[in-house]
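Supplementary Methods. Inverse-folding protocol.

Structures were first reduced to a discrete structure-token string of length 291. This string, shown here, constituted the complete conditioning input.
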């Protein structure tokens, strides 16, 4: 039997108490330079706060390339999944769909958004948002095993026309591309210490997410996978964010992170549409060591 949308997040990692610097996913500095046509447009920037169990977020934002900064006010692990409601569907339709077993209907288009970060941290994601009806969701289900959207962490978001005189901002300039396809993450180049802007692309026929974690000192990828199966004691990691679930054929999403030397992992927690197993159980895990 296929796992329900709520069940597929029972493996979401529990919160810890470290901090990390997460940069905002902005355009390259050259985007503000002037030429004969005037200053180049820059991405919209919004800030969303999440806590147990609600969002403090704008109700309406202009269309276009948008950087979403997500501040986790805790005390639990939280994220800001962004979904678009197509075919004239409403929030009432979405809430009804979330309560049904099986996969979400096709009119719920998962576009990414800042993935889960530990309390006190800030995650970010940049994505292109056309005019339409959207929603913010937190699909994490720790503590207690109940998805946070069932506790009220679901909120409508309306994207309106940006204005007749506005120009659409270009996508961020990325120095690293992560391709998600058939249970694998592929990096375009080896990661180094420093601040990186990641372009995340889903080429598969299934939805995927990218959760970036930093392993605790002395811990390995095997330790993390063993913890995910048993979930005994504190998790051997720090949740740094990344990009939440991206539906097949949805556009790329971007995020920026400042990394130091150490051991990291990329993981996908989405449950498979075929056998219901989490994608990390199919091998969708990428250990990364930064010297």
């Amino acid at each position: 039997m296929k796992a329900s949308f709520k069940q597929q997040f029972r493996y979401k990692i529990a919160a810890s108490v470290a901090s990390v610097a997460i940069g905002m996913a902005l355009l390259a500095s050259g985007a503000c330079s002037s030429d004969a046509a005037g200053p180049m447009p820059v991405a919209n920037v919004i800030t969303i706060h999440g806590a147990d169990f609600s969002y403090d977020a704008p109700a309406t934002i202009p269309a276009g390339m948008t950087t979403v900064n997500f501040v986790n006010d805790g005390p639990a692990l939280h994220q800001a999944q962004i979904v678009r409601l197509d075919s004239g569907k409403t929030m009432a339709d979405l809430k009804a769909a979330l309560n049904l077993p099986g996969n979400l209907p096709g009119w719920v288009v998962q576009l990414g958004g800042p993935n889960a970060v530990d309390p006190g941290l800030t995650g970010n994601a940049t994505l292109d948002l056309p005019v339409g009806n959207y929603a913010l969701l937190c699909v994490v289900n720790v503590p207690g095993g109940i998805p946070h959207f069932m506790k009220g962490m679901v909120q409508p978001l309306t994207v309106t026309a940006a204005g007749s005189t506005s120009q659409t901002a270009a996508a961020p300039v990325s120095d690293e591309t992560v391709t998600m396809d058939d249970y694998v993450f592929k990096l375009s180049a080896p990661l180094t210490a420093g601040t990186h802007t990641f372009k995340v692309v889903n080429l598969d026929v299934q939805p995927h997410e990218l959760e970036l974690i930093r392993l605790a000192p002395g811990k390995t990828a095997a330790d993390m996978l063993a913890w995910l199966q048993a979930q005994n004691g504190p998790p051997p990691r720090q949740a740094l964010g990344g990009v939440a679930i991206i539906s097949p054929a949805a556009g790329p999403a971007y995020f920026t992170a400042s990394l130091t030397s150490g051991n990291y992992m990329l993981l996908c927690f989405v449950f498979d549409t075929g056998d219901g197993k989490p994608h990390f159980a199919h091998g969708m895990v990428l250990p990364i060591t930064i010297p």
